[in-house]
C-alpha cells in the first residue's frame, strides 16, 4: 500500500539545464523530480516507469524529439490518460498552444513564469487527476459488480454447451483468458489495434460463444475419433456460419457491443491471415481483430488440450508449432504478442482458478441453475441469461445428443429431448428412483455405476466412464456412459448431482 506521505513524482523534459534547475528549485521541496534533456529520453523514461509519474512538465523545442512528438507518443501508448502534461515553453504562438491542447496537454505555461503560478498549477493538475482516478475507480468497481453476473452466466451456460462434445468447460475459460492476455499485449502497443479495458472485457466475454454453431453439427461428426471425410469436414466447417446466423438473428440485442463482437468471432475465427481460412476466405486485416485474436487462442488451446482424436501437446511445443507456421498463417503482430505473453499464458492456464471460476464451481452453479430454473439477475445479465437458456433448450431439442442431469436435492432427473424420446420416458422426472426411469432400466452395469457415484463421499472422485446395456426404442443397445459427479465446494463436501452423456457403441444408432 502506498504511503500517504509519499511524494508525487514529476518528470521534467527540457534541453536547458538552467530551466530544469529553476523548476526543480520551485517544486523539489514538495515533489520528487526527475529531469531529462530531450524528448527521446522522456519517452524512454515513460516507457519504463510511466505508472510512477503523476505529471510531466514538457518543453516544446528540444533536440532529437520535440514536445509535440512526445505528446504524440503518449497518445499512441495511452499514457496521456493517466499522466497529465503541462507544457512550459517560451513559444507563445496561438498555433503552438492550440496544437498542444489538441494533443492532450492539460495546461500551458509561458516563460518567463512566476514561481507561485507554476507551483499552484502543478498542484491543481495533480489533484484533479487524482480525483478523476478515484472517481474512475469507484465507477469501475460498480461496473465490475454489475458485469460479474453477466460474465458468470455466459461462462456457466457455455460450460453446459461444451459438455455436448465431451469437453470439461475449461476450453471456454481458457479462451477467455488467452483472449484477454493477447488483447492486453496488443493494446499496449497502441496504434490501430488499441482497445480500452472495457472493450477487452467485452471481447473476452464474447469469445465464450465462438463455437456456439457446433450445436448444429451431428454428434457422430463432432466426436469422431478418426479423421473426418471431406463431406464430414464440410459439415463441421458449417458451424462458423451457423453460429453467426444464430447471433445475427437477435433483433433485441443486435446493436449491443457484446453481440456484435460475438458475431464477428463466431463467423470469422477460422479465417487465416493468408486468406486460406473459412467461411469467407478473408485475408489480412479484412478479418476483424476480435476474430484474429480468438483464432490464435483457439488454436493454442486445441493444441494443449486432450481431445478424442489427439493427445495434448506441451505449452512449449504448442508455441513452437504456432510461431513456426505449422498451424497456418497469423497476423505477425499477434504472433509477436503471443511470444511476449508466453510465460504469462503458461502460468495463467496452469491454474484454472485464475480464470475466475474453477471447473467444480461452474458445475455446482450449473446444477443449481438447472434445478431452480430461475436466477436472480438484472439488466444485461438477465438478457444474457434468457439468451443462454434459449440456446441450451435449442441444443437439447434439435440435436441427437443423449444427455442427462440428476440432482440429489431435490431428486430430479432431466433428459435431453432425444434421450427422453428413445427411452420413452418424460424429459423431467421428480424422485426418479421410485419410477421406471433411466436409473432403474440401465441394467446391472448401469446400476453399479450409479451406485458407485451415489456412494462416493470424499468429493474428489468426479468422472466415471463405463459400457452399459440399455433399452433404446424398445431394443437392447450397448452404450458408453460418461458421467460426472458434481460436489459442493464446502469443507464437508456434499454431492449435488450427476451429469452424463450416452454414446451408442458398435456402430449402433439411437434412431
Characterization of the model:
By secondary structure, this protein is an alpha/beta fold. It has 3 domains: 9-113, Rossmann fold (3-Layer(aba) Sandwich), CATH 3.40.50; 148-384, Hypothetical protein af1432, CATH 1.10.3210.10; 400-504, 2-Layer Sandwich (Beta-Lactamase). It contains 19 helices and 11 strands. It has helices at 17-27, 39-49, 67-76, 94-102, 115-162, 170-188, 197-206, 219-222, 230-237, 239-248, 257-268, 289-304, 315-323, 332-340, 342-350, 359-372, 379-398, 417-423, 443-455, and strands spanning 9-13, 32-36, 55-58, 85-89, 107-110, 402-407, 412-415, 428-430, 463-472, 475-487, 495-504. The strands form 2 sheets. The protein has a 6-stranded antiparallel β-sheet. β3 (55-58), α3 and β4 form a beta-alpha-beta unit. α5 packs across α16 (359-372), α5 runs parallel beside α17 and α12 (289-304) packs across α13 (315-323). It is elongated, with a radius of gyration of 29 Å. The protein starts with 8 loop residues before the first strand and ends in a 7-residue tail after the last strand. Mean pLDDT is 77; it is low at 352-389.
